[in-house]
Amino acid sequence: MSTTHPHPAGSPHPAEGGHEDLPPNHVDPEVLERERTRWTPLRIALWVGVALLGGVAWVMIAFARGESVNAIWFVFAAVCSYFIAYRFYSKFIELKLTRPDDRRATPAEYYANGKDYMPTDRRVLYGHHFAAIAGAGPLVGPVLAAQMGYLPGTIWIIVGVILAGAVQDYLVLFFSMRRGGRSLGQMAREELGVVGGYAAIIATLTIMIIIVAILALVVVNALGESPWGVFSVGMTIPIALFMGVYLRYLRPGKVMEVSVIGFVLLMAVIVAGGWVADSELGAQLFTLDRVTLAWCVIGYGFVAAVLPVWLLLSPRDYLSTFMKVGTILLLAAAIVVVRPEITVPAVSEFAGRSDGPVFTGSLFPFLFVTIACGALSGFHALIASGTTPKMIEKERQARFIGYGGMLMESFVAIMALVAAVSIDRGIYFAMNASPAATMGTVEGAAAFVNSLGLSGVHVTPELLQGTAEAVGEETIVSRTGGAPTLAVGLSHIMQQWFGGASMMSFWYHFAIMFEALFILTAVDAGTRVARFMLTDTLGNFFPRFRDTNWRAGAWLTTAVMVAGWGTILILGVTDPLGGINTFYPLFGIANQLLAAIALAVCLAIAANQGRFRYLWIIILPLLFDVLVTVTGSWQKIFSSDPKVGYWANHFAFQDALGQGKTSFGTAKNVEAMEAVVRNTFVQGTLSVLFVVLTIVVVVMGVVETVKALRGRGRGTHEDPFVESWFYAPSGLVATPSEKALAREWEALPLERRTPTGGAHH
């Protein structure tokens, strides 16, 4: 990348040669290791307790077979597993694969331009990264997968994130950081050669457009006709702008101070949103139709992607993290206090079938595709090679932000699963079955659910209507997509702790707004990352795009990518039979194919660095992901069951049209039948394209790994070593030596903390 470093590569650290009075730029690694690994009796007892509690919780979930299981065991199993994985497995990966060096400057420092590259406090950056990766997936996927029982989803979410999802996020973030913050596609181009590289670039760009469009549509659907949600979510933008200016100019470095201010303002606008929605003027101003909202989201996506990262994107994502993490922790606390009993079977009747009423397909591979974010998500690899590596202060922070951020998202997925399985099974299926099955009425939904023959399930129209009235909705029948089910589950648990049944409506609408805020942060970060991806790609042909300070290029590439996902979004909003519905079924498999591409690139990088003894850390999740995605793609392409296979469905509707039929299956007229034919053609074609591109990338990754084993590898494509000019702690909680060194730096005048004389926030 052609930009000027704040100081040239190889120049002395400020503590050397002319700047002897400055503190060191890192804590001695041996001192740090002794502090973090010293085994005192208290620490041993603590970890033994965590292991025992987690073991008991897993036994209760996996083997106890009474009439019900208490929801608290899900919380304990998840939290204990995460603590153990972060403390031991992620540390093992750090020692054996990444080997960070805090003496080394990151791209945020040596490419700093105050717009995309900017050293950002690790706590703020953790909030940004978590908000960016945590979109619709961890909320929706587990809810849909609950039709197969609670056990398969729980195992995949927790074990999957520890061995696959968090590993991918951490490695991609670290490797991108070492390469100037380059995008996943560009890293593939450098590590895998022309064929594998351009296959990865085409796949990542196409899948990214689809993913951002889908995320944007979920936001639009959640906020449509909801003045409370529109006001509250909209007000987070000026609050974030204020926080950005506050940290940049008014009180640099005062992260906890601005955190308290931001949290208070956020709570205020949430409460005020209810008042605004109840007022005549507020309802009139903030009740927006979906087309208007779609254009607002498109405009916001463009602006958020081109403004300096410190001004809107980073503080807004940090602000929304309060809402996201706070709500999930509140739900976890409520589960511990209320202790709801879950009567859903561990493995349901639909686990061994492929004709489930919520989604079709067998447990393997489609459970592992339906639950993507929360266990393993290729979208995260785009964020981890997008905004985050351009903002991270120190290399050791990558484990906390990459691995730790993904563990938090997994916890969101577990809480979503618990919320879904805590409500009555009959209500769950009535909410998630298609309108064609339920006829959109409480009577039709009750008849459909009762016809499924589920043990102990009997639904009445009165139960469904009463539930809708309790949450302040006209109906809950066929409210598909996962978000309304999560909102009902959350309100059902929270009202038992706060406020009773009269508060169910408040908690329901709070959850809907929470989900919209959750997902919008993935849209703005996704748009910025899409711009980086296109810029990197064009830089291979037009070197001018490699200049990180060329704003015209940034605006042009942003406009192109926004036009791509914005077009699909408008189609989805204006034509329910086309547009987004064409692409949504591709979301899960495309996302997991993207994860295979990311892991294949990581495999080649680790092999070229000579880390052969520890390649199994990457090979294990890569093999499983390839097996899942290729099997799923094969079934979607070649299955003769129209409910599963795209082409089988395509030809079934095409034949029906050829026979002169005016309705067929769920399509009630010729226009709808023609839309199904068109949509399934696009779905089938893209499925073939995506799986072929992924196989090419994986094969080239294996080829490069074998070459490295034989001593013919490509070597490293890391940026040259540049000595860092400042210091920052590595984890959420600093060790004693980190605190001591941080106090030395904080005692310096502000203008001396960076070589450019300005503060980094």
Automatic annotation (TrEMBL):
Biological process, per Gene Ontology: cellular response to starvation
One cellular component term from this protein's GO annotations in UniProt: plasma membrane
Pfam families, alphabetized: CstA
Top-level taxon of the source organism: Bacteria
Domain CstA N-terminal: 70-631
Membrane topology: Multi-pass membrane protein
Region (Disordered): 1-27
Residue stretches of biased makeup (Basic and acidic residues): 16-27
Keywords, in A-Z order: Cell membrane, Membrane, Transmembrane, Transmembrane helix, Transport
Residue intervals passing through the bilayer: 44-64, 70-89, 125-148, 154-175, 195-220, 226-246, 258-277, 292-313, 325-342, 362-388, 400-423, 506-523, 552-571, 583-607, 614-634, 681-703
Keyword Transmembrane recorded: yes
Compartments reported by the entry: Cell membrane
Family: Belongs to the peptide transporter carbon starvation (CstA) (TC 2.A.114) family.
Protein name, as recorded: Putative carbon starvation protein
Organism whose genome encodes this protein: Kocuria varians
